[in-house]
Amino acid sequence: MKSTITAAICLVFLAPLSTKGMSVRGIGVDLQCRCIETESRRMAKLIQSVELFPPSAHCKDTEIIATLKGTGQQICLDTTAPWVKKVIEKILANKTA
């Protein structure tokens, strides 16, 4: 009985150690902004898809990540660029429609 209790206590304290080195981002939780640098050059014709991430507790900025045709590369778009503002308006209009 004593060894069972000792084993259970060890399990409770050792279980969290098994997640050492695991990225929190990998389990769907973002602790910071996704975009470090942004692109402002006009490239609408190269874009396959766009994701809009509104400000959150972990990032005060609105972030737009575009996936490029062909390469699948993901880039962050500058939300202050006039052409990007139009993309944001379209995304928001489609979400409310």
UniProtKB/TrEMBL annotation:
SUPFAM superfamilies associated with the record: Interleukin 8-like chemokines (SSF54117)
First-listed, main subcellular location of the protein, grouped into a coarse class: secreted
Keywords, in A-Z order: Cytokine, Secreted, Signal
Coiled coil: none
Residue ranges of every copy of the Chemokine interleukin-8-like domain listed in the record: 30-91
GO molecular function: chemoattractant activity; chemokine activity
Domain of life (superkingdom): Eukaryota
Subcellular location: Secreted
Signal peptide: 1-21
SMART domains: SCY
GO biological process: defense response; immune response
Pfam families documented for this protein: IL8 (PF00048)
Database matches in InterPro entries: Chemokine_b/g/d, Chemokine_CXC, Chemokine_IL8-like_dom, CXC_Chemokine_domain, Interleukin_8-like_sf
Family per record: Belongs to the intercrine alpha (chemokine CxC) family.
Record function comment: Ligand for cxcr3.2. Chemotactic for macrophages.
Identification of the protein by name: Chemokine interleukin-8-like domain-containing protein
